[in-house]
Automatic annotation (TrEMBL):
GO CC field: endoplasmic reticulum membrane
Main function: Functional component of endoplasmic reticulum-associated degradation (ERAD) for misfolded lumenal proteins. May act by forming a channel that allows the retrotranslocation of misfolded proteins into the cytosol where they are ubiquitinated and degraded by the proteasome.
Compartments where found: Endoplasmic reticulum membrane
Keyword DNA repair: no
GO terms of biological process kind: ERAD pathway
Keywords, comma-separated and alphabetical: Endoplasmic reticulum, Membrane, Transmembrane, Transmembrane helix
Lineage: Eukaryota, Metazoa, Chordata, Craniata, Vertebrata
Domain of life: Eukaryota
The protein, known as: Derlin
Membrane association type: Multi-pass membrane protein
Entry's transmembrane regions: 57-79, 100-133, 153-185
Family, as annotated: Belongs to the derlin family.
Length: 239
């Protein structure tokens, strides 16, 4: 009975969020069990171009380090904000969400080459958080019960938290930069005088991922609690 309930809950997770978070967890488990090593996963342009190890273009987004606080922290934020984007502004637009993944991943891969980053999963998470926060500017957040602020400040608060933990903020800055590029091209520039929509999901991706109308009885994860935990709890203003 418990297994069936767990399976049902798992299958209710939107498809892109489910696929990505599952891949991240399985990759980390494989490293923990010493089935593979991080050296087989990290981003290395030379090995990709000269040895044709093209899987590194994907696997560097799937490994968040050994199981510990950083891993759990990143997984929680990845799951929450990826799911809320997919069930919120991308609901019924799976192809557009996949295209955002591809666009963000491509930009990070290009920029990562110049700043010598070997794993880009955390930057990708920050990108998702940034896009969600800009699309939900009126949500008030609470971080660890210490800070109260509006959603657009969340990526910067996370960057400050990384700094306090002694981590490099280059990863956070990369995620914020790529998130801002996507948000500007998708949400800001098309609404400017003389602007236009530069980001258009290819028809092939639409054909593969867009699905018929969703079940009207489907209950998405409520955005009124965007953090879901003490370090990212929030509520809409005026709600």
């Amino acid at each position: 009975m418990a297994y069936q309930t767990l399976q049902q809950e798992y299958l209710q997770i939107p498809v892109v969020t489910r696929a990505y978070t599952t891949a991240c967890v399985l990759t980390t488990a494989a490293v923990q069990l010493e089935i593979i090593t991080p050296f087989q996963l990290y981003f290395n342009p030379d090995l990709i171009l000269r040895n044709y190890q093209v899987w590194r273009l994907i696997t560097n987004f799937l490994f968040f380090g050994p199981v510990g606080f950083n891993f759990l922290f990143n997984m929680i934020f990845l799951y929450r904000y990826c799911r809320m984007l997919e069930e919120g502004s991308f609901r019924g637009r799976t192809a557009d969400f996949v295209f955002m993944f591809l666009f963000g991943g491509l930009l990070m891969t290009i920029f990562g080459t110049f700043v010598s980053l070997v794993f880009l999963g955390q930057a990708f998470t920050i990108m998702l958080v940034y896009v969600w926060s800009r699309r939900n500017p009126n949500v008030r957040m609470n971080f660890f019960g210490l800070l109260n602020f509006q959603a657009p400040f969340l990526p910067w608060v996370l960057m400050g938290f990384s700094l306090l933990l002694g981590n490099s903020i280059i990863v956070d800055l990369l995620g914020i930069a790529v998130g801002h590029v996507y948000f500007f091209l998708e949400d800001v520039f098309p609404n400017q005088p003389g602007g236009g929509r530069w980001l258009k999901t290819p028809s092939l991706i639409k054909m593969l991922f867009d699905t018929p109308e969703e079940d009207a009885n489907y209950n998405p994860l409520p955005e009124e609690r965007p953090g879901g935990f003490a370090w990212g709890e929030g509520q809409r203003l005026g709600g």
